[in-house]
């Protein structure tokens, strides 16, 4: 599937140490805690564990993300990265290996197919995301890049 990446911006929130050992340890801890929750909620929001293959390393990577159910077998995620000028690594991983994505949601693993939303479909999803989690509005105003929204649909 073609996956056209949204370019990085020129301004945004700095994320110092995002690849530091401490940051990686915290991410792994959050993933483990989230996996143990059958409700799929963590820190007041619906979440999923996204598993991708590293664009450069080829290694499996897991990231805990806010998620927005989109029907019975689809979920929306947003590459906000806290308003950083750059897109998060998991976004590049999806673009590099769109056929190797899996999520864990509410205790079940699901192989998914990504689609980046554009136009009115993206606008409608953005309204829904910012209604559910208003903090995403702040991420959008911190950076000048358009925050990518991806629909993950359960693979047939």
Q: Tally of extended strands? A: 8
Total tally of structural domains: 1
H/E series: HEEEEEHEEHHE
Mean pLDDT equals 85
Biggest sheet statistics: 8 strands, antiparallel
The assigned structural class equals: alpha+beta
CATH superfamily placement: Electron Transport, Fmn-binding Protein, Chain A
Q: C-alpha Rg, in Å?
A: 15 Å
| Low-confidence runs of at least 5 consecutive residues | none
CATH class: Mainly Beta
Q: Kindly report how far apart the N and C termini lie.
A: 15 Å
Descriptive notes:
- This protein is α+β, with helices and mostly antiparallel strands.
- The protein has a single domain, classed as Roll (Pnp Oxidase, Chain A).
- 29% of the residues lie in helices and 29% in strands.
- The chain has helices at 21-35, 89-96, 119-132, 135-142; strands at 41-42, 45-53, 60-66, 68-69, 74-78, 101-105, 108-116, 149-154.
- Strands 1, 2, 3, 4, 5, 6, 7 and 8 form an eight-stranded antiparallel β-sheet that branches.
- A hairpin with a 2-residue loop joins β6 and β7 (108-116).
- The mean pLDDT is 85.
